[in-house]
Amino acid sequence: MPLESSISGTQALVIGGALSAAAALAHLACVFVGAPAYRFMGAGEKMARAAEAGKVQATVVTLAIAGVLLVWAAYAFSGAGVIASLPFTKPALITISAVYLARAVAFPLLKPAFPENSQTFWRVSSGICLVIGLLHLYGLIARWSAL
User: Fold this and answer.
1) Helices 119-142/9-33 angle, 10° precision
2) How far apart are CA 141 and CA 147, in angstroms?
3) Is there a contact between 124 and 95 (Cβ–Cβ < 8 Å)?
């Protein structure tokens, strides 16, 4: 009997949710550490200078992204059945999967709007979005009837 090596839909959603939560924490680190964290994460000199200058826009944008990522993590955990069921879990997971996957492949179209972001930022963040999006999609498909 062969050893099962694939992950379950539940596991995929838990891992995807944990990665979304980790991404949210990375964004929160930028808010609390400041400009050096923005630079390290490759967010661009404009964001780093805004943080150094104490401009609220950098903080608000970063907190909003972190908040969305935390909500997405909660939906993944809900879809996995590890927390209480959230409203609209199925359509939310469809949307979350689509957004992650679109972000992964659309970075060439996004780059001109954010010229300060480094090439490393685009490659790493797009790769991360691809992995998280695929985990969400796999988990969604595998758990479809349970959602």
Assistant:
1) 150
2) 10
3) no
